[in-house]
Amino acid sequence: MSNSPQASVPVFKLYGETHPWPTPDLLHCESIPERSRLHDWHIRPHRHADLVHVLHIASGRVELELEGTQHALQGPLAIVVPAMSIHGFRFSQDIEGHIVTLAQPLAEQLGQQLEEQAKALRQANYFPLEPTAQADRLATLVAQIDAEYRRPAPGRDRMLGALVQALCVELARLAEPHGPATAEPRSRDRGHEHLAQYQTLIEAQYRHQPSVEQFAEWLGMSSAHLNALCRRLANRSALQLLHERLLLEAKRQLTYTNMTISQIADSLGFSEPAYFTRFFKRNTGLSPRDFRLRQHTEASPE
Question: Could you give all domains of the chain from N- to C-terminal order, each with its CATH number?
Fold first, then answer.
């Protein structure tokens, strides 16, 4: 398996980056120019084990590589890049638009909430946008997501969730009339299916902190096989993927709730608050208390 062409394709944590997920939110939103200019307007082919991209290009050109096919495209358009899809971009320097990145837990939630309409997030696709009311709604939704993401406000988490649901429905409507604009998607091998199943199990069980051996048993494989699969496709061990989900939820609760450190530790399956504090500090460099203070300080209006 290590000689597979995918083995040489880097796995990024975020658009163009190997750095950790930078936010306690389940999504990340930024303008395409602010990130792309740092990479000379060229994001080389890569994939994400547990992220979904939705790009809205208002104007400008992009050379899109998606699942081994090349496309020269002009805005306005929307692009959907599911987890594990190989993709790369070369943007024109006058590019205008945004990229919304959804973390795996949010993609899982949307799948449960929207069912069939969430399929739009699992299909590598692009949609040229003709001047229509639907295209205007899509552009407005992305602008609202960007505005809500950038400013602290009461109910921000719920508002972002509602806006992303609406975005997903609009993408599903775009996909309905003519089917995918891209070439037929690459068939997923058993490894990809097993990784997706493991991520779904993590989402369902992470608060109980099952052992890797228990996860492997549920998946019908050995723990060594599960670890090897995670390292090959996600560049992390099975335990690291579980810990990343725990850490993300801890950050969310420290940022958006008034739960005590002890309550958060208990809700995440830690037998003692001290164990949680050590886990959190080892992974972030901050104690839970210091992280919460920093988040609240950064969110305070000047």
Answer: 5-175 (2.60.120.280), 190-299 (1.10.10.60)
